């Protein structure tokens, strides 16, 4: 354990210094400078995990303190909050450094177009896919560890399912409204929704979760993805839904945009 704690920062520092020499080679991945990508998505997470492990090792083995699980949780959470702030700073630096390198390589490079790629496509996909993955994680955990809830009747459970259906419609609406019209964004979102719905269907046939509040999180996510997939198969194929989208996208209280996306006349 001690050897590993010593070698990890040594190797990451060596790799970071080695990669720094490639910074001006105009190498990229996902339109982000290759070196900055490695710094942000590989070296920074590795160092974050290492520092958490090092902190845990010091508190549990090297310092003669009788800390409870609650104390360790508070210390770990406090450290993680400050570490996440540092990670955000690294992410901002990596992105802006990419802009700087692009301009150094080509003074006429359109930085705004690249920033819109990160803003409207890359980050939207990562955040949306991440949110679906987290939701599925809680759903799976609920199947493995059901809630200890006993209800004499099921009205509350059916209300939960109705709310899940509403949330499914809102989920697709949010994805639909944030479509940047770049690189098949909505096609990717629909595939992700369908994929996570299939995951829930497979879980149903494998685990056969009870249809009650004890697995409420699973059924909530199941209904949410189900309705979102239904909306994805219907929306954008009808003129009225496109009018609704134009209204929502262009609506401005000051400009008085109507349902057809046109400015109302006084």
Structure, explained:
It is a single chain. Helix 1 (2-20) runs antiparallel to helix 2. The model is unreliable at 256-266 (pLDDT under 50). A two-stranded antiparallel sheet has the order 1-2. The protein has helices spanning 2-20, 34-62, 69-105, 111-144, 155-177, 185-207, 216-234, 239-250, and strands at residues 28-29, 32-33. It is mainly α. It contains eight helices and two strands. It has two domains: 2-109; 120-235, no CATH class. The longest helix has 37 residues, at 69-105. The chain starts with a helix and ends in a 16-residue tail after the last helix.
Strand line-up in the sheet with most strands: 1-2
- The global form is flat
Estimate percent helicity.
Answer: over 70%
Uncertain runs with pLDDT below 50, 5 residues or more?
A: 256-266
Distance between the termini: 75 Å
Number of helices: 8
Fraction in beta strands: under 5%
The succession of helices and strands, N to C, reads: HEEHHHHHHH
Rounded Rg: 24 Å
Mean of the pLDDT scores? Answer: 80
Total count of strands: 2
**Class computed from helices, strands and strand pairing:** mainly alpha
Largest sheet: 2 strands, antiparallel
Number of domains: 2
